[in-house]
Amino acid sequence: MTPFTWTLEAVDGNARAGTFATPHGSIRTPVFAPVGTQATVKSLTPAQVDELGAQMVLANTYHLFLRPGDELVAEMGGLHRFMAWNKPILTDSGGFQVFSLTDTRKIDDDGVTFKSHIDGSLKRLSPEISIRIQENLGADIIMAFDECAVPTDYAYSRLAMQRTHAWAKRCLDAKRREDQALFGIVQGGVFSDLRAESAREISAMGFPGHAIGGLSVGESKADMYRTIAEVNSILPADKPRYLMGVGTVEDLIEGVRRGVDIFDCVLPTRLARHNSAMSMRGRLNLMNAGYARDERPIDPDCACYTCRHFSRAYLRHLVNAKEMLAAALLSIHNLHTLVQLAEDMRAAILDKHFEQFAQDKLARLSAKETEK
């Protein structure tokens, strides 16, 4: 078995380049992980996800618990075999999805009772149940069950943080498999005192890695970036740091600038399904009539399959014709954009010129491309 080891290879300012070893391969950071909510990255095959350079994918505990069921996945050999992905997999705890069901769930100190969005049946998640599900799924990195609160409500953020700490301890006690790395999650909304308390308490529990949860859920960019910096100033430097659910070009750069190592987000494939392309020049809406005769690729500097073969005019045609290929080609491009950005940031850190790299990319992004 490959041990879970974190090697910090270089630091440039607060930006870090490292390697996290797992049983299914080493993850070179900074890294962006595509989200495969239901054991699939939407519209793409595992081979396509591999070809665009993804090192790891994320799967969703809540959704796989409801369908097809974690016990069935275990019976089929675990997620790696079930979805034909032999690289690292990360599963979230199900907490964020449950807590987003504001009208159909009831929280208590032991866990959460909620109605399935599929058939309305009552379900229960607790720290112990979440760990059991994730052990059945068999991901390399699993997450402690936490409570994600409204980030600007102090009283609720404090209560959710306290539950998160208690549940983190129960997750550690419930964990049985040694071939999975359990990460603890820091909560506390946008409140500096709560985040500092949470970062210290979660750090003291001895997790092999730490996550920052409860951000990019409605707070301002300034609050998000400040919170990331404050938390990472407390989290230990000798373990990887994971910013959950964040996935724009700007946020990846600003996150790495503040010491984040791992990112994931549904945004690239969600935008693709809504006819939008990400790029280092800004976001393009392929419904725009100005692209009808545009022979250029989405991004002339991009080396992805989509940009090497297809024009904006063709992509706009696919979008207007509602062809399934549109979502696939845009997903390839959007994911490649973030995967490649993470790799480029790693190279800049190793070469000790990350800050100049960040400034150049952010300046180019803010200038944007004027859409026709």
Notes on the protein architecture:
- The longest helix has 27 residues, at 324-350.
- The termini are far apart.
- This protein has two domains: 6-260, TIM Barrel (Alpha-Beta Barrel); 272-367, no CATH class.
- The chain has 372 residues and is α/β, with parallel strands linked by helices.
- An eight-stranded parallel sheet has the order 4-14-13-12-11-10-6-5. It has a three-stranded antiparallel sheet with strand order 1-2-3.
- It has helices spanning 46-51, 61-66, 70-75, 79-82, 95-99, 127-137, 154-174, 192-203, 221-232, 249-257, 267-273, 305-309, 312-320, 324-350, 354-367, and strands at residues 6-12, 15-22, 25-29, 31-34, 57-59, 89-91, 105-107, 112-115, 122-125, 141-143, 181-186, 210-212, 241-243, 262-265, 276-277, 284-285.
